[in-house]
Every structure is written in C-alpha cells, then in structure tokens.
Amino acid sequence: MKVLVVGGGGREHAIARALSFNKETTIFSVMAKRNPGIAAVAEEILLEKETNVPAVLRFATSRGIDYTVIGPEAPLEAGIVDRLEEEGIGSMGPTVAAARLETDKGFCREMMETCGIAGCPRYRVAHTASDAEAFIRGYDGDLAIKPIGLTGGKGVRIMGEHLDRDGAIAYVRSLGGNVVLEERLIGEEFTLQAFVDGKHLVPMPLVQDHKRAFEGDQGPNTGGMGSYSMPDHSLPFVNRRDAEQAFAIMKNAVAAMGKAGFPYRGILYGQFMNTARGPMVIEFNARFGDPEAMNVLSLLESDLLTIIEKTVAGTLSQADVRFSNKATVCKYLVPEGYPDNPRTGEELKFAGKPEAITYYANIEERDGRLFTMTSRTLAFVGVSDSLDAAEEIAESAATSVSGRVRHRRDIGTSRLLEQRVSHMQELR
Ligand code: AMP
Ligand code: GLY
Predict the structure, then answer these.
(1) Sequence-distant (≥ 6) Cβ neighbours of residue 167 within 8 angstroms
(2) Diameter of the chain by CA atoms?
(3) Average pLDDT in the 109-136 region?
(4) Strand, coil or helix: 16
(5) For ligand 2, what atom is nearest to the CA of residue 292?
(6) 209 CB within 6 A, ligand 2
(7) What pTM does this model have?
(8) By alpha-carbon position, which residue is closest to atom 4 of ligand 2?
(9) Is the CB of 260 within 6 Å of ligand 1?
(10) Ligand 2 within 6 A of CB of 72
(11) Residue 246 has pLDDT above 80, yes or no
(12) Which ligand is nearest to the CA of 187?
C-alpha cells in the first residue's frame, strides 16, 4: 500500500516512522522543507507547501496513493481531505466541515452548548471589538481570549496571567473582533487523542504537554516544548472518573458532528483542563498533537496502516489498537531565543548515537551536517518501564547535543509531577 504523509515536522516524522515498520507500506511525503528523518523512510518526497491542495492532489493521483495521513491543521482547513476523497483516496483526517471543531473555535463552543456536551466553559463569541470590550468590562472574573481561526497555538491570551483587564481590552481591539471570550479555567492540563472512524473512537494514552518556553512553566507560549506519558496510560492527577468523563465528552462531540451531517474521521485531539469540577474542554484539534504524537506513536504496537484502513472504512475497534505499557518522555531541542528570536543556521553536533528515539523537526541537513532553522529543531523520546528512566534517556540525549539550542530539563521529572499532583489535590 502507498501512504502519503502530509507535513514535515516532528509529528509527521513519528507518523512516517510508525508506518515504516510495515514492510508492505511505501511511504510518500509532501512537506514544505525537507525533514531528514522523513526523507530517510520515504520512497519519494514532494517539496511543496502542504496547503497547495492542487499540487498535493496531482502528486497523490500520479503516484497511485492509497491513503493519506494529514499531519497539520492548515491543509485540513484548505479542504485537502474533501478533494482527496473526490479522487477516491481515503484520509486519516477530517473533511473541512468536520475540521471546524478545531479551525473555528466559535463553532466548537456553540456546538458543545447546543448539543449539551459537558466540559464547556462559560463563553461569549464576539464578532466586533466593541462587543468584546463590553463583555470584558461586564464580566466578573478572568477570561481567556481566543482569536477565531488558526494561530499556530500562539493567539490565546489569558487575563490574570498575561494580561489585566485593560490589556485584555487593548488585545481585542488590536484583533478587531472575532474572538471567543471564555471563563479562565484553573487546573492541570492533559491531552487525550483518539482514532475516530466516523462513529467509533479508540483512545490513546493520556499525555501532558508543556507549552511554556522555560522551566517551571515560565516565559512565552510555544508550539510545545515536550511531553510525557505514564505506563498505565493515565496521569497521576487524572482519576478514572476524570478520564472516563473526558472520553465521554469526545464521544459525544463525534456523535454530535455525525448527527449534524459532518461525520468526523481521523484523529481527534482533546485538550482538557482538569479542574475541581472535573475535565473541561480547552479545545479540540483535528489532528495529532505535536509533540504528543511522538509519545503515543513511540508506544504503538499495532500496525498503523491497518488502523488507517479501518478508520477510512468505518470499522475501527479497540482490538486494532495496542500501545505498550511503558512511560515516554519527549524533549524538544529548540534554537536559542525561540520562540521570539530564534538563532538560525547554527550547527548541531551529536556525541554518539542516543538511546532515545530521535525525531527531526525544523532542521536543515546540508552535506551531512545539521543546522537549526526558526522553529523547534528535533525531539528525543525516551521510552522505558518508569517515568524516571524514560526521562533520563531523553535528558541524556538532549544534553549530548552541542550547538546553540536549549531544552526544558524539567519535563518528565518526578519533581514537576509532584507539583502537578499537589496542585490538583489543592483544587479538589
Ligand atoms: P489553545 O491555543 O486553545 O491551545 O490555548 C493555548 C493555551 O492557553 C492552552 O494550552 C491553555 O494553557 C490556555 N488556555 C486556553 N483556554 C483557556 C481557558 N479557558 N482557561 C485557562 N487557560 C486556557
Ligand atoms: N501540542 C499542542 C498542539 O499540537 O496543538
């Protein structure tokens, strides 16, 4: 079978690597910049913007592609899945209408409210800046301010964290309206991803991502600096009831989309805040998380091609998806100065072959040498029986690289985990 992977980051390297274990799968890739990790397992690459749908379509049809996996959200929003479907090519990824769960935050909240789906914070969709301003002035408490539309995870500002009330008003004015204003949720975040075949959902291990650039969750938000998962596929600050509730929310969202005439197929990513009231939805994404894909796909024991085939056919069941009971810790190396002022073109040197799995992301290979670019460079994933051991594997790989890059040392450490657990205990 020929599978086309769309996208060129760490997430897509993890997808391509998982596909590469099946020797009957031939991997093709479309990516804007050449990812050396994907290039190493791909039969052929098209260097092209992932949102150039006609170019992707021509490549897919001329190469006789059987299935595609869409990594990032932008091509989903550009309607890539709809167009591929018209050509008879099935995708791991939703249609443009179903992808609105991610691409239109206002739609998502309104759908949750109308369908009575639990976990929806109080919110207001404001189309004009003056409507937003009036709501902020009259609201008693802190708000999260979210521009409607894709922002690469960088458009959300939180009152009480990044902004005061005047700052919030200035921010909505600068956006000129079209924002979702919602109750600021307090708790601990976690990610639940599921394979969805239109009706059935199969959950993946829970993961916790780290958005802030610096240790101790300081500094600006990033695409995600790293993440971890536990051998029991849960997290110590998420109890069984929380996990069941989060999964029920995702099932209800998929059912609601089906009922509304937009059946959801692909990966559904639920970002939850575990609060004193249980899990609340921060957002849905219509794709794997990056870095979270690297945690779960490093644990996948089942054949990814079979999962894709059954997802497209609508016959996916729990028995098709098995993850090993190990812990994972993923640490991204990023250029010094990332995200505001990344140092590009800096050479990286490896001291030997790391024990961790290496996933390449925004990195340039020239004459066998590796250089930083503007975004996250590469990630190391440690996989082991305990979180501590997985953390050690990832950390030692990360520190073995020399060059103008940095990473968060605290991700996956027991110290950080204890803080999360005690924060949750305080809240309950
Ligand atoms: P998003 O781009 O929606 O993932 O938001 C980025 C980050 O903003 C999330 O990972 C949360 O840390 C934070 N955030 C988003 N919505 C809320 C909310 N309602 N309350 C508190 N924090 C939020
Ligand atoms: N890790 C967050 C995201 O992929 O959106």
Answers:
(1) 157, 159
(2) 60
(3) 96
(4) helix
(5) 1
(6) yes
(7) 0.96
(8) 289
(9) no
(10) no
(11) yes
(12) 1
Q: For position 352, what pLDDT does the model report?
A: 86
- Tokens 């990812």 belong to which residue? 35
Q: In a mutational test of the pocket of ligand 1, which residue from 112, 282, 423, 427 has the highest number of ligand atoms less than 8 Å from its CB?
A: 282
Evaluated on CA atoms 267, 193, 188, 378, the torsion sign reads: negative
CA 290 to ligand 2 center in whole angstroms: 5
How high is the pLDDT of residue 278? 96
Ligand 2 binding pocket includes 270 (Cβ within 6 Å): no
State the pLDDT at residue 150: 65
- Choose one of 108, 209, 272 to mutate for the ligand 2 pocket test, by most ligand atoms within 8 angstroms of C-beta: 209
Domains of the chain: 2-92 (3.40.50.20), 122-183 (3.30.1490.20), 186-320 (3.30.470.20), 327-412 (3.90.600.10)
User: Rounded to an integer, what distance in angstroms lies between the CA atom of residue 232 and that of residue 209?
Assistant: 17
Q: How distant is the alpha carbon of residue 100 from its chain centre? A: 16
Average pLDDT in the 248-277 region?
A: 97
Please give the Cα distance from 169 to 130 (Å, whole number). 9
Is the C-beta atom of 121 inside 6 A of ligand 1?
Answer: yes
Mention every residue, 6+ apart, whose C-beta is less than 8 A from residue 90.
66, 67, 68, 84, 308, 312, 313
Q: Mean pLDDT, to the nearest integer, of 187-213?
A: 97
Range of lowest pLDDT (30-44, 90-104, 144-158, 304-318): 144-158
For atom 9 of ligand 1, the residue with the nearest CA is 282
Ligand 1 center from residue 128 Cα (angstroms): 21
What is residue 227's predicted lDDT score, i.e. its pLDDT? 98
Using the mean position of ligand 1's atoms as its centre, give its distance from the Cα of residue 156 in Å.
6
Query: What 3-state DSSP class applies to 424?
Result: helix
Whole-number Å distance between alpha carbons of 390 and 207: 14
Q: Whose alpha carbon is nearest atom 2 of ligand 2? A: 289
Q: What is the DSSP string of 137-193?
A: HH-SS-EEEEESS--TT---EEBTTTB-HHHHHHHHHHHTS-EEEEEPP-SEEEEEE
CA angle, 209 then 211 then 216, to 5°: 95
